Amino acid sequence: MKMLKKISVVVLAVVMVIGIFAVSVSAAPAAPEFKLKIKSQSSSSVVFVLSLASGSVNSFDIQFNVSGPIGACKSIAITSELRDLKYSIEDSNGIVSMANNTDTKMISFASTKTISKAIPLYEITFAKSSKNVTTSDYGATFSSCVLTSGSTNIDMTSRVKLITGYIDFKTESISANYKQTKKIDFESSYDAKQIKWESSNTKVATVDDSGNVKMTGKGTATITAKSTDGKAAAECKVTVSYAWWQWIIMIVLLGFLWY
Asked: What is the CA radius of gyration of the chain?
């Protein structure tokens, strides 16, 4: 009997430890993800946009790393979306502190209110040579990243992610009729040779190297674009149906064959 009680106590203790561990793991906030993408480039300059892609953050310090054709940092400016957010935070008695330095290519941001909205934050302009900038020419390092939860400041520096290589589809789904061709509009930091296109069902839809989708049969398929370095991918669901006049043709043909 005593042995049974001891075993019961041990089992209960183990269950409590597992429960506490599970709660602590599930309560852990997701790491914020930032995106650094090329907005535009000319023969003499390139403009990047730094965005909060997902997650939440209160403060961060980031320094940009550039090489190849990229030269000096010419300007760092907040976006209209961040300006509006700053005003909104200050209107609710919050405080926002921002600083940047073009010489050190650094941005410092801090807010008493947590930012959880995925928006573009800064536009950063660099001088460049006539050669085009690619994803291997730029990056950034976070020296600090903090999320405030209640009265606790959580250091997210080791967990924060920066996305530099990306493929962004402008639509997540396409509906079309049999025999139609539609193009998937997208933005990417990769050139055409660095993107591989695939269809999950070529009997329903096929896709070429430019994102043109040809509807080959009724049903659904998923069109995927993947970067050759494996760092980025995007998907679009395609639904193909028959137009009314195509149904009439099929019915007539089937009736003729049956007859």
From this structure: 26
DSSP string, 186-224: EEESS-GGGEEEEES-TTTEEE-TT-EEEE-SSEEEEEE
- CA distances to 31, 68, 220, 238 from 167, rounded to whole Å, are 21, 22, 22, 18
C-alpha to C-alpha distance for 49 and 125, rounded to whole angstroms: 9
Domain count, the chain: 2
Q: What is the pLDDT of residues 221-233, one digit of tens each?
A: 999 999 988 888 9
Query: Residue 208: is it exposed, middle or buried by C-beta count within 10 angstroms (0-12/13-18/19+)?
Result: exposed
Asked whether residue 132 falls in the same domain as residue 206, the answer is no
Instruction: Give Cα 206 to chain centroid, integer Å.
Output: 25
**Residue tagged 């429960």 (tokens):** 19
**What pTM was computed for the model?**
0.69
Between CA 166 and CA 90 the distance in angstroms is: 33
